[in-house]
């Protein structure tokens, strides 16, 4: 799994390419991701990347930027 793949899935879920330009953007603070978006993201990660992320593993503090999300997925892959 490459970071770019994660960023592309995230950009599609958030409907904003700023994620591709700034992988350290604060997703929740900037309003790019909310509770519904989080669920959508986890489903897309499983479907497109084949990584199952239990909702209990997801915390806003650890999954707050595209780079952090890519790091966490690398740990779970």
General description of the model:
With 77 residues, the chain is mainly alpha-helical. It is 55% helix and 0% strand. The longest helix has 15 residues. The N and C termini lie close together (8 Å). It has one domain: ACP-like (Non-ribosomal Peptide Synthetase Peptidyl Carrier Protein, Chain A, Orthogonal Bundle), CATH 1.10.1200.
Radius of gyration: 11 Å
Under the CATH scheme, which class? Answer: Mainly Alpha
- What is the CATH third-level topology name? Non-ribosomal Peptide Synthetase Peptidyl Carrier Protein, Chain A
Largest sheet: none
Number of domains: 1
Number of helices: 4
CATH superfamily: ACP-like
Order of helices and strands: HHHH
Q: Could you give the count of β-strands?
A: 0
Mean pLDDT: 94
Task: Give the name of the CATH architecture.
Answer: Orthogonal Bundle
Q: What portion of the residues fall into strands of 2 or more residues? A: under 5%
The parts where pLDDT drops under 50 for at least 5 residues are none
What's the gist of this structure?
By secondary structure, the protein is an all-alpha fold. It has helices at residues 3-14, 18-21, 35-49, 66-76. Helix 1 (3-14) crosses helix 3 and helix 1 (3-14) packs across helix 4.
């Amino acid at each position: 799994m490459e970071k770019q793949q994660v960023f592309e899935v995230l950009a599609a879920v958030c409907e904003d390419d700023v994620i591709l330009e700034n992988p350290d953007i604060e997703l929740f603070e900037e309003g790019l991701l909310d509770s519904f978006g989080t669920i959508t993201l986890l489903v897309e990660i499983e479907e497109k990347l084949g990584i199952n992320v239990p909702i209990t593993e997801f915390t806003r503090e650890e999954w707050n930027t595209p780079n952090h999300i890519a790091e966490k997925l690398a740990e779970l892959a």
